[in-house]
Amino acid sequence: MKLNGFFKKKDLMQEAQDYKNSGKYDRALESYANILNIEPKNLKAWYDKASIHLTLEQYLPALDAYKTILELDPGNIKAWHEMGFILVNLGRLEEALVAYDKVLGADPGNMKLLNEKAIILKELKKDSEVLKIYDLLLVKDPNNVKMWFERGLMLSGLGKDADALLSYEKVLGIDPGHAGALARKGLIIGTKRQYAESFDLLEKSIKSEPSNWNAWYGKGKVWGLKGNDFISIDRKYDAMKAFETSLGAYGKALELKPDDPVLWFEKGVILNNLGKANEALEAFDKSIEINPDSANAWYEKGLITKELGSDADAQDCFRKVMELDPSHTLARHKLKH
């Protein structure tokens, strides 16, 4: 009898595998269910069942199957990896990271999985952790232009411009014509008042890729800074010329990215510097329409509204600033006067 039972189980497994191999997945799943009713700890049956659900993109039953596999075999690295993939597809990213870390604990040099983990961390906006992974990957792949550039963008976003600059220089060392890196480097050194080199890099970026809105933004920003410097040394004519150049650049950037609140804000600042208060107010209103939570835009709108003679509306703007940013001392001061 025991021998007959052995052959029966073997026949059931063979039948299930035949259905699976021929693409008859419904019949295969029925067969595996029958096997697991008889032998609930049959690891092979659970794994085949999980793989069918995964093939059919039936992620919830696949996840349940992988959980059972890992209860039976906690060190099954392949199961951890595949469960991580399923969790990503279900949008359960934090749980996916746990699964991927199990795999990386056994295989820390798995480049493909490190890349996958970096993508998840980017989605979760955990840039500091992404940067750690990039540093590991770039040791293995030091000429990866895309990764060096993304590293620079993240460092800029974290306010680490000096480190970001090193990344952009790495990009340009590999690809001297990289429009994105030219623009980003140009902006960073422009904020350090290295105007000649900054303008040269920004113009190269624009010439290489005229549709790069960030290059136009950088040009607008740096010419605006140069205009402010001219004002500080009482060179008003040169300042107005610089502001006009800045305004033209922001106009080009907005043609390419019309829904960017920062571009509208910066355009408003330059229009105000040029004495075009009504146009500046329109620009700040547009910035606020896109991003109503910008304390800076509300503050600048308040200043212009007051300048145009509407004190009550200006006070409303300053109150809005305090609502958004209670630490905004300039707005608090304006409310007292």
UniProtKB/TrEMBL annotation:
Keyword vocabulary terms for this entry: Repeat, TPR repeat
The keyword Flavoprotein is assigned to this record: no
Domain of life assignment: Archaea
Signal peptide: none
Pfam families xref list: TPR_1, TPR_16, TPR_8
TPR repeats: 9-42, 43-76, 77-110, 145-178, 261-294, 295-328
Gene3D superfamilies registered for this protein in UniProt: Tetratricopeptide repeat domain
Protein name: TPR repeat protein
Species this protein is from: Candidatus Methanoperedens nitratireducens
